[in-house]
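protien #1 (seq + structre)
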Amino acid sequence: QVQLVESGGGLVQAGGSLRLSCAASGRTFGSYAMGWYRQAPGKERELVARIDSKRMTEYADSVKGRFTVSRDNSRKSVYLQMDALRPEDTAVYYCNTVPVKRPWGQGTQVTVSS
């Protein structure tokens, strides 16, 4: 059973950067594809970045070229480097498996001011 704890969010001005971290528990972490999801107020949760067990990555068009997902299996962690942030990136960010198979963590709030 993988449990997930996100951190690293905060308030940043447009054009700034943040690095999110996700700490996972569970013996088989390395075999899962992991993703970063976000949910903005009044909107559905969406997948923005994915990294599989072979470190192949995919991104939503809205973040492509600005966000970078990575993982460290020895630390059972997934990261999201977010650069050139925009106000529309404001959301609560979560990590989970892809597809979603685990309970959601508390997420981490990212707020981008214009």
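ok now protien #2
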Amino acid sequence: DVQLQASGGGLVQPGGSLRLSCAASGFAFSSYPMSWVRQAPGKGPERVSSINSGGITTYANSVKGRFTISRDSAKNTLYLQMNNLKPEDTALYYCARGIIDLSVRGQGTQVTVSS
């Protein structure tokens, strides 16, 4: 079975940093593009960042310059380094397999940015 387990969320003050991890199993991780998606209360999901199998990355304008996506195929793990966090970054973050079809996803990790 495909499993995507996100971790690393928490409560952080504005301007702080967090690093999210997503452990993948049950499929050929290195062959798939991967994405980080977030959903804030009362809002629809937003694809934050994606990385393809070759390491090409894309970012939502709202996080460009602050977030960095990366992957370690040896560890079957996807990462999201988040710097200069803002209150509007507060959301449930989850990793998903793919870029367009994001239906294969994990349960997510909560990120709360508040003073």
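The mean pLDDT is 96.
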